[in-house]
Every structure is written in C-alpha cells, then in structure tokens.
Amino acid sequence: MARRTLSLYELNCLVADLLDFELPDEYWVEAELSEVRQSNGHCYMELVEKEDGSHTPIARASAKCWKSRWSLIGPHFERITGQLLHAGMKVLLKVKAQFHPAYGFSWIVSDIDPNYSLGDLARRRKEIVAQLRAEGVFDLQRELRLPLFCQHIAVVSSASAAGFGDFQNQLLTNSMGLAFTTELFAAIMQGEQVEQSIVAALDAIHARQDEFDAVAIIRGGGATADMSGFDTLLLAENVANFPLPIITGIGHERDECVLDMVSFRRVKTPTAAAELFINWLSATQDRIVAAHDTIVRRVDGVLQFERMRLQRIAERIPSLFTFARYRLQTRLEQLRMQTIQASAERLQREQIRLERLATRIGHASESRLAAEQSRLQLLSQRLTAADPRRLLERGYSITSFEGRAIVDASVLKRGDEITTQLAKGTIKSTIK
C-alpha cells in the first residue's frame, strides 16, 4: 500500500485551515506581558500566565498587533492609562488564533481594554501604598521642612530632557534675582531602567547630602505615557526614607504615581518645581524684609522713648546736682573730721608705743653691751693664751724656711737655709 506524504507547507496549511474552522471567533484573554517591542509600526508581545502566589509561568504564547490596528489601539491605550505597554503589566486582549505556514502560530491582537490595565495598575499601586504604610515610611518626607534659605538643589533628571533646561532657566533667570546653585545627577527617566537609575542617583546625592538643601526629581520633554517606572516599591522606599525634602515634577497630570505620593511635595512640571523653590526663597526674603521693618519700627520707638527719658533727666540735672553737691560736701566734711580725729588718736597711740619701745631698747642695749664686753674679755684671754710668744718664752722654738714654718723635715734638702725663732733672738742654719 502506497504511503501518503505531505510537505511541511502542506501540513502547516492543514493546521491553519483547521484552526480557522475550529477557532473562527475572537476571544478576550487575560495575560501578563513578559516582553513588548515595536518594529516597523507593528507591536510584538510575549504573554505569560503565572501560578498564583508564584512567579513560575504555567502558560506562554506570542501575540502580534499589526500596524493597521496598533496605530489606533496603541495611542488610545496610552491616553486612557497614561502608560505605555511594558513588561510586567497585566492586560486584557482581544485575540484571534492564526497559524501562518511560514511563521507558525500566534495570537493576533485586535483590541486592548485599557480599563482592565487601569484596574490592575490601581491595585498594584494600592498594594505598594499599603506596604509603605505598614513600614511606617509613607509620610516621612512630609515630616521634613525645606530650609529657609533653600538654594542648593540636587536635580535628578535626564541631561538631555527639555524639562531640565526649563527648570534651570526658570531658576537662574528669575525676575527677583534670587541666587540658586544646582547640580545634575543624570538618570534615565522612562523605560524599564527608571527605578534602578533614579535609586543610583539618590545614593550619590545621599553620600553628599550636607551639600544640598533639597532634591528635585523632574521629567519633561519626552513621552509622557511611560510612567510605570515611578510606581515601584523600591523607588518609593528610597524616596520616603531620604533625609532631604524631595520635590517631584515628572509631568504626569492624570493622577498621582506612588513616587508623587511619598515625596515631600508634588508639582505637575519641572517649571512648577522651579517656581516652588523661587516662591519659597521669595517668601523667606519677604520674612526678612518684614523682620527688618519690624526691627526698625521697634528701634525707632525705643529711641524716641529714650530721648524723652533723657530730656526729663536733663531737666532734673541742675536740682539733682545741687542736692548731690550738698550731700557730697556734708559727707566730705564728716570724713575730714573723722580723719582728723582718727589721726590724732593714731598719733597718740604711736607716741605711747614709741615711748615703750625706747624704754625697752635702753634696757636691751645695756644688757647686750654687758654681754658683749664679757665675750670680748673671754676672747682676749683665749688670744693671749694662743700667742706664739708665750710658747717661745716656755722654751719652744719655731723653725721656718723662706718665711714658712717647717712641720715636716722631709721638705728640706741640703743647702737650704733655715731660721729658728727663739724667745730672744733667732738662729740661722744651713742643712748639711
């Protein structure tokens, strides 16, 4: 029996015909986007369904939306949701099965329900807010205060964004001539890298937080639909816990993203963020001017009061001077009399003291003289007893050489002439 064979193309055509016959209708399907890309006006999507409570996919499929349909439903979806299709978003798609002999099977998308995605986004946003409240960080930013002189601003934005240029121009050319300094910490402000990029910029600012008064996260000049990166738990936690006030101006007017909710203050645009800083510093300037005026008024009042007080004192000076002079003269006279009396009493006491001292000195002098005379007599007796002539008279002699008494014979040598002193006369001798 002959075997019937089919070519691959014929087989694929059979599958395509079967699908067209068995699945002729369109179906609304719920799925999560794992990948989205656009090419030549077409939109290509990878769909997944994950097991409840897990990130494990239990179903996968590819879907395509051709340019003719995507040009209509894509802008409509962005206008309603305020976001682009992106990975991780849950969507409700109207699809039809298609099996192409050359490209295989895929679901062809003919419509997307933006209200379904809005509900899912709202749910995720609500979950993030609940988590932040549970952590006790949701309101931390609003407990901070902008410094009165808020002039040093760290800016998180794309360097090429028109919104950053508007922010800079608004600050630096303000009509009041207020001075601001800004430093850009460049970040990606749309797409899947928004979270990671902004967190890195905030980390860089945190390392130098003493150099800045506040932070501005601004976005403008690009697509306003892709806001998914600003609705993440990690970014919200970083902003909520940041030690400096953070102002957000990311150009999203439809409703607040989570980043707006946890920031110190949310404004609509980068220009509005600049105006906030200008108005704040202007209010500080007004407070200084008002304080200056108050000080001037109060000083003028004090000066006027003191002038009146000095005038009254000046009018009282003549009578006060006469009274004071009389009191001083009376006091001086009293002091003079007291001084005379005290001097007389002191002189009398000193005279008595001198007389007593004179008497004591006379007695002491006599006693001292008698004692010294007795001492002199004793010394005289000792000197007389120690006189060498007394020794000579008793038979002793003194031998000398060259005027010096000899007490050691070994110092003499042959030929030396010595002199011997006797009580009566001297003898000269030569050593043999």
List its salient traits:
alpha/beta, 21% strand, 5-stranded parallel beta sheet, 5-stranded mixed barrel, single chain, 9 helices, OB fold (Dihydrolipoamide Acetyltransferase, E2P), 432 residues, Rossmann fold, elongated
Description of the molecule:
- There is one protein chain.
- By secondary structure, this protein is an alpha/beta fold.
- 49% of the residues lie in helices and 21% in strands.
- It has helices at 8-22, 67-81, 114-135, 162-172, 194-206, 233-240, 258-262, 270-385, 388-393, and strands at 27-39, 42-50, 57-65, 90-100, 104-112, 152-157, 181-186, 214-218, 246-249, 265-266, 398-401, 404-405, 417-421, 426-430.
- Strands 1-2-3-5-4 form a five-stranded mixed β-barrel. Strands 7-6-8-9-10 form a five-stranded parallel sheet.
- Helix 5 packs parallel to helix 6.
Number of strands: 14
Tell me the strand order in the biggest sheet: 1-2-3-5-4
End-to-end gap: 177 Å
Give the CATH H-level superfamily of the domain at 129-283: Response regulator
* Inertia-based shape: elongated
Helix content: 40-55%
- Helix-strand pattern, N to C? HEEEHEEHEHEHEHEHEHHEEEE
Structural class: alpha/beta
